[in-house]
Write a structure and sequence with these properties.
alpha+beta, D-amino Acid Aminotransferase, Chain A, domain 1, DNA polymerase, domain 1, 5-stranded mixed β-sheet, 5-stranded antiparallel β-sheet, 25 helices, 24 strands, 40% helix, 19% strand, binds 2-(butylsulfanyl)adenosine
Length: 737
């Protein structure tokens, strides 16, 4: 090949691959198949290798890895987009109502209205209007930040471009969906064009909304139901019913099945009615959403970490299907938990093809629950069995039943592994636990990889472009073995023959993008870092609670270090108490746990004790979590890995949201009877204002709110000189008198 031929060929390949990329990313009309595409790319790379000087500025090599989703900008929701708690049975619905009444201090006979609305099975969307003009629209994303799909949403006929008589600022929220008829027609068109067809209307709606080219979205028949709102400059109404009416008057589609009900019995009636008409609605729904109608009560009820207290989704029963259990795979998780996964002959359940299902743990396979009682009438699961699979909502499919009459004669009981299939370490089961765990810790590659994935995941460091596949690859190459390595990747593999850009499937552009995302991820709020450590029992909520309490990594680590001896004492005491209980039971006498605890704790220095009590005193942080934290930070290797990571990060000061509140940062204890609100409401309100609510009075307590009948806590507070207020004084302080 001459230089001139090479140059011409590179130009031709750049053109072809560029066109193929565009067609592929627009998804509708891929012009060449994957194998041809790869072949062209290899040819291009080979010519470039021979004639490096001819490499074009627009070389296709550098374009690889630029995922289409990168094309969407991000929008931070001014008010978080939440999900809903679930109810599956009538009892769950009764409990939902009872919980709300308890929170609000209402009796069973007090009137309490709800709305019941179909739960549309689509994707949620938030659309922002300012002075009546559509400003932007975003998908839910992780609830905090979604994708900017404004151009696409402007093509949806159900979404008004202008509103007349709306509040100056209004964020309308609802569901984008596709009707059954439109879905069938779209799939027929796609099939005719030899393009990708969709498994169900939800996927079709998602695929259509997330198109980089809005003209493709325009050709897709998307619809929208409004059912909620985010930021508003003036309230829409006093009730949910009123707000939906208002949205309808503003030109939005509001679901016509929506009803206002007078209590749980009426809700169930609406649910049964909607369930009976489900097939005739013409679009997919997966349940009925119940909401407290009175918006003032909604405000009082507020939110848990990710769901409102004032709403729940009553789900339709799960869809099921029968298939064959082909095999049982074993996965090792980040905390060493060994999880069996069913490998199934693929089967469609509720519109989705299922080929895996969770099998939970060895007891579940054996037909027992965690307390040893039979499940599935005590029938075990064997490879080769015909099994019934079910799927409720988005959850991982599960195995419900076994058809014993179809069991192959040679099917053997499943022997659960007692060593880790990944690293060979013993897999042990602690007393009272249903899960077997690999004891390999950081020597187990599966645990290390799972921890890395967790660390870079969306709720933790959230590094764009570093997904499961990439983590596995970098780990296999031994480029990233612990979290800190991510942040030195560019220094070590930023250029040269052994570099990220030189890897198959990567190029300069995608590598540069990854390095940029890693740089962005260096600055992190403490809560995300704590969650990202992957410590057992330390979830997102606990991460936030700990961050709010300690405020900085140094304060947190100092607290954990100081608490070390107390954590040990706690563990020793629990072991001794369990032994004493067993002995006492055998001898037919009463155990004396209090004495034992006192003896063990007598040796613990007051500083250690205070640090431990401070940690377990944080609302939501119990002894189990505190122990897991101490274990993780006191294991030398783990601590070294954590310290190395922290040296790479810059931890942001905790959010200053509640700074303006007069009780922000204060540790508050409520005691006695509160008369204007329930204890649960008082606690939720105080936390929303940035206070820490504790159950016990200590030297750390800033404020005791005492109602009538306050006893020992008030006495202790008085001895310690803690500031005390009655309920009215508290309401006065927080400006709600
Ligand atoms: S209300 C703060 N109402 O269900 C509560 N959600 O599982 C906001 N959904 O993310 C949600 N129909 O995508 C509400 N009538 C309805 C709904 C509905 C469907 C979806 C929504 C939400 C998910 C929660």
């Amino acid at each position: 090949m001459t230089v001139a031929e090479a140059e011409a060929e590179l130009a031709r390949l750049a053109e072809m691959l560029g066109r193929a990329n565009a067609a592929y990313h627009a998804e509708d009309a891929p012009e060449i198949d994957d194998a041809t595409y790869d072949e062209l790319k290899r040819r291009n790379a080979a010519i470039e290798a021979r004639f490096p000087d001819l490499k074009r500025a627009d070389s296709p090599t550098d374009l690889v890895g630029a995922a289409p989703a990168d094309g969407f900008g991000k929008i931070r929701h001014s008010i978080r987009m939440l999900s809903l708690s679930n109810a599956f049975t009538r009892e769950d619905v009764a409990e939902f109502d009872a919980r709300i009444r308890r929170f609000l201090g209402l009796g069973a006979e007090d009137r309490l209205a709800y709305t019941a609305e179909p739960k549309i099975d689509g994707l949620s969307l938030s659309i922002r209007y300012e002075d009546g003009a559509l400003i932007h629209a975003a998908t839910r994303g992780d609830g905090q930040t979604g994708e900017d799909v404004t151009a696409n949403v402007r093509t949806i006929a159900d979404v008004p471009a202008r509103l007349d008589g709306a509040p100056a600022l209004l964020e309308v929220r609802g569901e984008v969906y596709m009707s059954h008829a439109d879905f069938a027609a779209l799939n027929a068109r796609q099939a005719e064009a030899a393009a990708k067809t969709f498994a169900n209307p939800r996927n079709a709606a998602a695929g259509s909304l997330r198109q980089l080219d809005a003209e493709i979205t325009r050709a897709r028949p998307l619809r929208f139901f409004a059912y909620a709102w985010g930021e508003v400059s003036d309230p829409l109404a006093d009730t949910q019913t009123g707000a939906l009416d208002r949205l309808a008057r503003l030109g939005f589609s509001v679901n016509p099945e929506t009803a206002t009900c007078d209590g749980p019995a009426a809700l169930i009636e609406v649910y049964d009615g909607i369930a009976a008409r489900r097939a005739e609605l013409g679009y997919d729904i997966d349940g009925v959403v119940y909401k407290v109608d009175d918006l003032a009560l909604q405000a009082r009820l507020g939110f848990r970490s990710t769901t409102p207290r004032w709403a729940t989704a009553h789900k339709f029963p799960a869809e099921t299907a029968w298939t064959r259990l082909e095999g049982i795979d074993i996965q090792v998780g980040r905390t060493g938990a060994i999880s069996p996964v069913a490998r199934l002959t693929p089967v469609t359940v509720g519109g989705v093809v299922v080929s895996n299902a969770t099998l939970h743990n060895e007891d579940y396979i054996a037909g027992r629950d965690s307390s040893g009682d039979p499940i599935r009438d005590g029938v075990d699961l064997r490879v080769g069995d015909r099994v019934e699979i079910y799927r409720a909502g988005d959850v991982i499919p599960k195995v419900r039943g076994v058809d014993l009459s179809a069991r192959p004669a040679d099917a053997l009981p499943y022997a659960f592994p007692e060593t880790c299939p990944e690293c060979g370490s013993p897999a042990t089961r602690e007393p009272g636990e249903s899960v077997r765990r690999c004891t390999g810790g950081l020597i187990c590659p599966a645990q290390v990889i799972a921890r890395l994935k967790h660390m870079v995941g969306r709720a933790a460091l959230d590094i764009d472009g570093l997904g499961d596949k990439e983590v596995e690859r970098f780990h296999d190459l031994e480029w990233v073995l612990r979290p800190a390595d991510i942040f030195t990747l560019q220094r070590r593999y930023g250029s040269g023959v052994r570099s990220v850009a030189a890897l198959d499937g990567w190029g300069e552009t995608s590598a540069a993008k990854l390095f940029a995302a890693i740089e962005v991820a260096r600055v992190q709020p403490l809560a995300r870092v704590l969650f990202g450590l992957g410590i057992r029992h330390l979830g997102e909520v606990a991460g936030r609670d700990l961050a709010r309490h300690y405020g900085s990594w140094d304060a947190f680590a100092a607290g954990v270090d100081a608490a070390g001896p107390a954590a040990e004492a706690h563990r020793r005491a629990e072991v001794a108490v369990a032994a004493e209980r067993a002995e006492a039971a055998a001898e037919g006498r009463r155990a004396k746990p209090t004495d034992i605890r006192a003896t063990v704790w007598a040796d613990v220095e007051p500083e250690a004790r205070a640090a431990w009590e401070e940690m377990v005193g944080i609302d939501g942080i119990g002894a189990t979590l505190a122990l897991a934290i101490c274990d993780a930070l006191h294991a030398p290797e783990e601590r070294a890995a954590i310290d190395a990571l922290l040296a790479e990060l810059e931890i942001e000061a905790p959010e200053a949201v509640a700074e303006a509140s007069p009780v922000a940062g204060l540790t508050v204890v409520f005691t006695g009877t509160l008369e204007k609100m329930t204890r649960a409401e008082a606690k939720a309100r105080a936390e929303a204002l940035g206070a820490k609510v504790s159950g016990s009075v200590s030297a750390k307590t800033d404020l005791l709110v005492a109602g009538p009948g306050a006893g020992s806590k008030a006495e202790k507070a008085a001895t310690l000189g803690v500031r005390m207020l009655d309920e009215d004084g508290w309401l006065d302080l927080i400006g709600e008198a």
